[in-house]
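Protocol step 4 of 6: record predicted structures for both targets in the notebook before any analysis. Target 1:
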Amino acid sequence: MAAGTLQVQNLGVRYGGVTAVEGSSFEVAPGECVGIIGANGAGKTSTLKALMGLAPRTADALRLGEVDLARVKARHVVRHGIGYVPEGRHVFGGLSVRTNLELGAHSRRWDDQAKATLEEVYTLFPVLRDMRERLAGALSGGQQQMLAIGRALMSRPRLLLLDEPSMGLSPKLVGEVLDVLQVLRGRGLAMLLVEQNAWLTFEATERCLVMQNGEVVMTGRSADLRHDPAVRRLYLGL
C-alpha cells in the first residue's frame, strides 16, 4: 500500500441488535476521492462514524498507513490524520469564524505552520477571511459548510471524510464545493465522500462503493456507475 492509504477489511457496525454495516472492505489512496452511495439507511454515515471511532465497530483491518485505527480512541483519531465534516455542519454558532477554525487545529501546536494552514483555508474560502470575526451562527448555510470543511482541514489531515457536504446548498455553491474537492485531491489528500447529490458524487470521485442494507454490493469507476441501470435503481430511485 502507498503511505497514507486507508485500508478497511470486513468492517461491521452494530447498534444493539441492529446491523448497520456488515463485511465492508475498501481502500482509499492518497489523492483519491472515493464515493459511498446508496439509499437512505444503507450504512453510509455509519461507515464514516466507524472510521472516526464514533460508532461501535469490528474489523479485520482498519488502518491509515502505518496507524492501526482499531486501537485509536475516538478523541485521538484527528491526531492520526483523519478530518471529519459531519452531516449538518455542526459549527459552533456562538463563536467567531476564526475561533471555529482555530479549534480545528486543537490537535496541533498553534505555531507558524498552523497559521500557514489558516491562510490556506482562507485562500480556499475567501468568504471566511472576510467574515472571520462574525459569529458562525450568523453565516448562511453555504458559508457554514465552507467553515465546516475549513475547520476539518485545520488539522492537516491525510484523509478527509465528508458526509453530505452539499445538503441544502444552491447549485452554484455545490459547484464551488466540487472545485474545492478537486483542489484538495490535486494536493494529494485522500477523501471519502458520502453524498446524495448524484452529480456531485460522480463528478468529484474516481471510484464509488454502492451500499445496500449495510453491505457493499458493487464497486467501480464513477464514470461507469453513473450510467449503470442497477445503480440508478438503488441510488437514484430510477
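Target 2:
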Amino acid sequence: MANTTKWSVAHKLIFYFCFLFFGLNTFPFPLDFIGEPVYNLIEKFWTPIINLLGNVFLDLDEITVRPNGSGDTTWNWLQELAILIIASLGSIVWLIAARNRANHEKLVYWLRIYLRYYLAATMLSYGLVKVFPLQFGTITTYRLYERLGEMSPMGLLWTFMAYSKGYQFFGGLMEVVAGLLLIFRRTTTLGALLSAGVMLNVFMMNLFFDVPVKIFSFWLMLIGIYLLSADAKRLWQFFVLNQPTQATQEIKIFADKKWFRIGRIVLKVLFIGITFVAQFYSNWQDAAPISAPKSAIYGPYKVEKFERNNVVSETDTLRLQEVFIDRRGATDMIYVTNEEGLRKRVNFTLDSTKHIIQMNDYAAPITDTTQYAFTYTLSDSEKLFLKGKIKNDSIKISMKKMKPRNFLLTTRGFHWVNEVPFNK
C-alpha cells in the first residue's frame, strides 16, 4: 500500500536541500574507485563554476590551486559555496515541480542507504589507517629534538597522536566499529550515534589545531546527524523524557522480491569485502615497514661541513645544520634544519647495495616527480658523507651522528600507580 502521508512545504524543502547538498558533496561515490578519470571529469565540471564565484566574491580571475593534501583550499570553500547555492535554488525548483506529490518516502529510503554506505566506507577507511598506525605514524627523532614552540598546531596534534599507538588504535577502532554498525539496518542508529560523536571530536581537533580537513570532517558529522534525524523523536523520548518508545516503522521496498533480498546480501558482502577486508589487508601490508629493521644510516646528525659548488660558506642560507634520517610510521623521511629557519622534509628510498639515497621534495606538487640522488659513505656508524646535486648545485655534506639521548617522553612509560602527579 502506498504511503499517502502528506508532507508540509517545510518538510519537502528540507528534504530537497539535504538530498542535493549531501548528493553533491558525496558524488562520485561509489564510482570513485575508478580513480583519476572520474575526478578529472568532476574537476572539469566544477572549474567554470568555482572560477565564476572566485571572480564575483574574491575578485580572482582563476582559482589555480586545486584540492591537494589540504581539503580547505580556496577551491574547496568556493565549491561548498556553490553546493549551498545549487542546493538552495534546486530545492525551490524541485518544490514547484513536485508540488502535487504528497511525499518522497521511497526516495528517503534510498538516500539513507546511500549515505549509510558512504559514511561506513569513509569511517572504515579512516579507522583502519589508525588501527595500523599509518596516519600519524610514530614519533621521529626530528620531533624529539625539535622545540615545542617551533611546531605548527597540526604538528603538535600529529606528535600527540603519534606518541601512543594504543590511543591511535582506540580512535581508529571507534571509527571502524561505527562503520561496521552502519552497514546493517538494525544497527544503523547506533552506528550513526557513534559516527556523529566521533566526527564531532575529529572536527573540533581539526578546527582548533588548524588541520585542513575541517570541511570534510564537518559534513561527515552532518551525515551522521541526518541519519539520526529519522529517530529523533524516539531518541528524545528514550534518553531525555525517560519514556518507552516503539521500534521504527521502515518503509518496505521490494520486500516480496526474492531477487532483491539475494541481491542485497550479495552487494553487502561485496561492500564489506572491498571496504573492510581488502583495506584491512592492504593496511596490514603497508604497516609492515614500521617494524622492519633500520639501516645504520638512520639517526640524528649534526652537519660539520657543507659545500655548495665546492665552496664552503658559514653564511650560506642553504647551509644545513642538522639532518634527521628517520622513519615516521611506515614512511622513510629526512628532515633538515638550519639556523636561518629552514625546516625541510623529504621522502627517500635507500639502496644500501649501491649506497644511494634517492630523495624527492615532500612539499612539491604531486605532478612534480623530480628526484635527487645522493651517494653516501658511512664510516664507523658515526660519520656520514653525502654527495650529489640539487638542481644546478653540486652539494657535499659531512656530518656526525649526535650522541643518543634518553628523552623523558619516550622513557617515562606507563604507570598504574602514581603517588604524586608527574607533570613535567
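Step 5 preliminary note on target 2. The CA atoms of residues 176 and 216 lie 18 Å apart. The first helix runs from residue 9 to 26.
Proceed to step 6 after PI sign-off.
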